[in-house]
Amino acid sequence: MHTQGVRSLIPANPPPLWPRERFTSPLRSEAAAARVGRALGISFAICFVTGLLSHYQYHPWSWLPIQAAPVWGYRLTQGLHIAAGTIAIPLLLVKLWIVAHRLWEWPPAKGLLHGLERASIAILVSTSLLQLGTGFVNILGWYPWPWDFVRVHFWLSFVVLGSLALHIAVKLPAIQRGLSRPVDAPTTDEPITQAPGSISRRGLLVAAAAGVGVIGVTSLGQSVSPLEPIALLAPRKPSTGPQGVPINKTAKQASITEDLVGAGYRLTVAGPSAFELTMQQLEALERHDRSLPIACVEGWSRGAQWRGPRLLDLVRQAGGDENSRVRVISLQPDGAYRDSWIVAPQLGEALLATHINGDRLNLDHGYPLRLIAPNRAGVLQTKWITSIEVDR
Ligand SMILES: Nc1nc2c(c(=O)[nH]1)N[C@H]1C(S)=C(S)[C@@H](COP(=O)(O)O)O[C@H]1N2
Ligand SMILES: [Mo]
Q1: How do residues 292-342 score in pLDDT, each as one tens digit?
Q2: Starting from the edge strand earliest in sequence, which strands make up the sheet with 301-308, in order?
Q3: How far is the CA of 383 from the centre of ligand 1 (A)?
Q4: Is the CB of residue 245 below 6 angstroms from any atom belonging to ligand 1?
Q5: Per-residue pLDDT tens over the stretch 240-299
Q6: Which of 49, 52, 78, 343 is the most buried (most CB within 10 A)?
């Protein structure tokens, strides 16, 4: 009685906009869906793992601090994160096109289990589109939504992963069938034959792979220097910027004026034996050289030569040691990245850079003093440092 009442609410025929007969292409096969799905699954897995690693840069556990080696660790993992996320966009669009006829199946649920399965697909599709779409516009520096990107991106990734795991589990037989079957083999359960002169299934996969390859190659240049000349899609060119390195936030955007770094500038070091340095005293400190990359969470990265006093030398002078918890604070009045924490082993390897690639730091790169440490997210390489707190 009751079920009948519900059934009568759902029209027996498909909605007129998407009749099943519109999806006649033989390209919409299990074999193609499984292959594109596999590539998509791999790129999602890379995004998830590298995303967790990136998140860990912001919130490390005290008993498992971020390592200082390899120095290019974050450069690699975050470069991979952005590259995998970028190529997942065309892959997802191709996948959705291949299975579109199933998405509009009518009635939407044939029973409880089927209904749950379809609900999980609805969640997977909508959260994947949201995750990839907002991630992509975020690296373009355009983010028109009021919610906090990092938190939403983080929590959404678990929803995507969970619904993906469910989807793979439910579809395992179809995936195995699809992968074991040659792409172009005719199938009985997909009885549509290829129209003369149209693209083959293999052709579709080759075209999709070529498209993904072109997108990959033209965006990877933002972290892989040899590819930079063809990095047409990269939001930033690694060597375009003052002193050969891009600028993430300019001094002006951070409200840093020449006045703030003029004669009145002081570096204060708070700790058991606190002290203060004028610009002149800073100049007299022993300087060290290191070759380290800046690797932005947005995917671009660039190696550079840095010179400046060792952070640990100042920490020791203030009564701390290599096991201190140290906070560096910027002249920047507000903003999420105006300060950062640094602990061992990165602390022992960090410089307070005064020079980049042989020149005095440009104001936009953090003059007079900026943090630079190995295997560290760009957002934590604090610029315009004015005070250091040593927490013993
Ligand atoms: N004080 C301060 N330091 C900062 C930032 C900031 O917004 N404020 N941005 C960070 C980010 S996101 C990156 S990627 C690096 C980039 O350094 P660069 O602009 O010198 O290339 O600086 C970091 N240091
Ligand atoms: Mo960044």
Answers
A1: 999 999 999 999 999 999 999 999 999 999 999 999 999 999 998 999 999
A2: 288-295, 301-308, 355-356, 359-360
A3: 6
A4: yes
A5: 889 989 998 999 999 999 999 999 999 999 999 999 999 999 999 999 999 999 999 999
A6: 78
Three-state SS for the chain is CHHHHHHCCCCCCCCCCCCHHHCCCCCCCHHHHHHHHHHHHHHHHHHHHHHHHHHHHHCCCCCCCCCCCCCCHHHHHHHHHHHHHHHHHHHHHHHHHHHHHHHCCCCCCCCHHHHHHHHHHHHHHHHHHHHHHHHHHHHCCCCCCCCCHHHHHHHHHHHHHHHHHHHHHHHHHHHHHHHHCCCCCCCCCCCCCCCCCCCCHHHHHHHHHHHHHHHHHHHHCCCCHHHHHHCCCCCCCCCCCHHHCCCCCCCCCCCCCCHHHCCCCEEEEECCCCEEEEHHHHHHCCCEEEEEEEECCCCCEEEEEEEECEHHHHHHHCCCCCCCEEEEEECCCCCCCCEEEECCCHHHHCEEECEECCEECCHHHCCCCEEECCCCEHHHCCCCEEEEEEEC
- The finding on whether 246 has its CB within 6 A of some atom of ligand 1 is yes
Q: Whole-angstrom Cα distance, residue 378 to residue 375?
A: 9
pTM: 0.91
Pocket-testing residue among 223, 248, 338, ligand 1, by greatest number of atoms within 8 A of Cβ: 248
Q: Which ligand has its closest atom nearest to the C-alpha of 297?
A: 2
Please state whether beta strands 385-391 and 266-270 pair in parallel, antiparallel, or not at all (unpaired): parallel
- Residue 238 beta carbon below 6 angstroms from any ligand 1 atom: no
Among protein residues, the one whose CA lies closest to atom 9 of ligand 1: 379
- Torsion angle of alpha carbons 56, 60, 65, 67, nearest 10°? 20
From atom 11 of ligand 1, which residue's Cα is the shortest distance away?
Answer: 379
